[in-house]
Amino acid sequence: MKKKAFAVLLTGAMAASVLSACGGTAPAPAADNVASETGTAAEEADAETSAEEETAEAAPASGGGAGTINLWTFTDEVPGMVDHFLKDHPDFPYKVNSTIIATTDGAYQPALDQALQAGGAEQPDIYCAESAFVLKYTKGDMQDFAMPYKDLGIDIDARVKEADIAQYTVDIGSNTDGEIDALGYQATGGAFIYRRSIAKDVFGTDDPAEISKIIGGGSGSWNKFWEAAKTLADSGAAIVSGDGDIWHAVENSSDTGWLNDAGQLQIDPKREAFLDISKDLTDNGWSNQTQDWQDAWFADMKGEGSKPVFGFFGPAWLINYTLAPNCGGEAVGEGTYGDWAVCDSPIGFFWGGTWIVANKNMDTAKIDAVRQIIEWITLDCTEDGLQYKWANGTLNGEGGTKDSVGSGTVMAMSDGSLDFLGGENMFDYFVPANQYANGKNLTQYDESINTAWRDQVRAYAAGEKDRDAAIADFRQAVADNLGIEAAQ
After folding, report:
1. Which of 82, 278, 310, 486 is 20 to 30 A from 212 via CA?
2. What pLDDT band is residue 437 in, cutting at 50, 70 and 90?
3. pLDDT, tens digit, for every residue of 389-404?
4. Would residue 216 be called left, alpha or beta, if left means φ above 0 and alpha means ψ between -120 and 50 degrees?
5. Gap between the Cα atoms of 467 and 275, Å rounded
6. Helices 77-88 + 367-378 axis angle, to 10
7. What is the predicted pLDDT for the residue at 51?
8. pLDDT (tens digit per residue) in 325-371
9. Cα separation of 341 and 428, whole Å?
């Protein structure tokens, strides 16, 4: 599913203004835009939802002759899914026209907003939003354009229960009235992904159940994890590559988001504690002090960093589209390929994901057709649906990439074993991880606020400023850039 190129299909006046922003490249051969904290927003989104960003010719997916369904997104992943849907449904009466605009330099959201507001025949009928900005389209400034899934004719409560969709996905995709406006096709609950060889050398076992106990997997506490960090440091290894490997677990397990009910900036105590976590990682030598999505981070994946790195926190996409392409090999025994395993994270969290939204202003004649596409991508639990094919790596035939999908029902009937993980079935840990994740602590401004926070945390950890100055400078940056004042 993660292709080597993606397409940009632009029309009219948008072409000149947007095309120049669509040629960025990701450092990894293939995640969620929360990565703007450490590089650009596009870097993480590319690993999670596509391969390297390059502009290519785009042709509309072929379909029937009843008209056109307009699909807007930021990588070629969902258009690729729709191509498969059309092949599997030759009598589908519509063709699908895909507009793909990269998130590079913030190009996607303004263009999408303009198209939704303009309406007319060219408006998006289906559009995609990822975790960094999805709340804007489900609960925020643009939520009024979203059509609740029930209005598409989906018995949404029954279907969500049948598919065993993780609650965090439902919470994020629900509007302010509690109706589901969007669902994801991926499940991005996070686990701890560790090196088997280091586990054996330091702890005497590489068994996921035992390593989970050693690091406090599922405990809701970091205490045992830091004990393990000390043990690893005594053996000359780092528990993680950099503080970014901890941040997503901290961010998405906090009790509150960046804004209070009055729309003022607040810092959840768990997020504020990240200042101390980052400094401890630096001062105690528990990391290699890398930044995620930078060369040194990738070097640690293949065991070529300054110290051996024990593991990384992340969802299944981090294994498939970041660790595997950067492990230094393509078969067991090459680089670190096959030397990995998955166990429980101490803290439940998610990282990334893409949600599918329908435009409530679409031509009513298209509603049933749009329903069919969205159901097939997000809710179909049969072996003919996208969920099953993607979970088992059979979308493009046998031997494809297996991934964690939105439906727990589908993953329970699927085989998530990977040679990269020494034959381990990753679904044994990612299915419960999806249930532990919290989807109630996001805001539509997370991408920008996270960037400011990560900048100040790094400055504090490096000894460039004291704790109070880092917090004050963070608050000032949010006020200057977003006009959001801090709560008193």
Report:
1. 278
2. confident
3. 999 999 987 778 999 9
4. left
5. 8
6. 110
7. 36
8. 999 999 998 999 999 999 999 999 999 999 999 999 999 999 999 99
9. 11
Kindly report, residue by residue over 280-318, the tens digit of the pLDDT.
Answer: 999 999 999 999 999 999 999 999 999 999 999 999 999
CA dist., res. 423 & res. 407, Å (int): 22
Dihedral angle of Cα 189, 192, 197, 202, to the nearest 10 degrees? -160
The count of other CB atoms within 10 Å of the CB of residue 304 is 14
Asked whether the CA dihedral 398, 74, 241, 268 is positive or negative, the reply is negative
Exposed / middle / buried, residue 240 (Cβ in 10 Å: 0-12, 13-18, 19+): buried
- The SS3 call for residue 378 is helix
Closest by alpha carbon to 393, among 377, 371, 361, 417? 417
How many C-beta neighbours within 10 Å does residue 129 have? 29
d(CA 192, CA 95): 42
Tokens standing for 21? 């922003």
Say if CB 176 and CB 304 are below 8 A apart. no
Residue 57: half-sphere exposure toward Cβ, Cα within 13 Å: 1
C-alpha to C-alpha distances, 77 to 6, 74, 83, nearest whole angstrom: 8, 9, 10
Is residue 368 classed exposed, middle or buried when 0-12, 13-18 and 19+ CB atoms within 10 A define those classes?
A: exposed
Q: Which residues contact 75 (CB under 8 A, 6 or more apart)?
A: 6, 45, 46, 49, 50, 53, 100, 102
Neighbours of 455 (CB within 10 A): 16
Other C-beta atoms lying within 10 Å of the C-beta of residue 302: 16
Model confidence pLDDT, tens digit, residues 439-461:
889 888 998 999 999 999 999 99
> How high is the mean pLDDT of the chain?
88
- Token output for 306: 């300054």
**Does residue 215 contact residue 245 with C-beta atoms inside 8 Å?**
no
Q: What is the pLDDT of residue 61?
A: 52
Q: Do 125 and 44 touch, CB atoms closer than 8 A?
A: no
Question: How does residue 22 score in pLDDT terms, banded at 50, 70 and 90?
Answer: very low
Q: Which token pair is 452?
A: 């400011």
What is the four-CA torsion angle of 64, 82, 17, 24, rounded to 10 degrees?
A: -150
- pLDDT over 50 (residue 217): yes
